[in-house]
Specification:
Length: 146
């Protein structure tokens, strides 16, 4: 597996992986959203590639007005989960983070993701009420880089 910066030609597969991982959640990126992130400069879109095929991605957003870096998404092809791709994407995201604190939101019902992030040094730091379109709250998780 190799990690690289995603490019315009990856957008279709990124959208497919996103639908597979998150369904039709309105918080997900549109084609235009991915394209803007790919050219915007403050957002890193990392692609995980295996055998020439993109099988996962991470979106890391370094918004200039926030004191933290936002880890907006990590998605891995369902059939390949548990094989280290998510861990590699997270490690690369932590390396690219421009601020000492990395923050993310996760559904409280997504216990596997919460366990994953806890295993990698993230702590629960709060709740964001009604974060998702269906009214579900988000667990806020943070990790400080050394």
């Amino acid at each position: 597996m190799t990690l690289r910066t995603a490019c315009d030609s990856d957008v279709d597969v990124l959208l497919s992986l996103q639908r597979e991982a998150f369904g039709e959640d309105p918080h997900c990126l549109t084609r235009e959203g991915f394209e803007a992130f790919l050219i915007g400069g403050r957002t890193d879109v990392i692609a995980a590639e295996r055998g020439g095929v993109v099988v996962g991605y991470a979106v890391l957003n370094n918004r200039p007005f926030r004191p933290w870096t936002a880890l907006d998404y990590i998605a891995v092809k369902t059939s390949l989960r548990g094989g280290g791709i998510g861990e590699a994407l997270l490690a690369e995201a932590m390396t690219l983070a421009r601020r000492r604190t990395v923050r993310l939101f996760v559904r409280p019902t997504n216990r596997a993701a919460i366990r994953f992030y806890k295993r990698h040094g993230f702590d629960r730091s709060g709740i964001r009420a009604n974060n998702y379109a269906d009214g579900e709250d988000a667990v806020i998780m943070t990790r400080r880089r050394p």
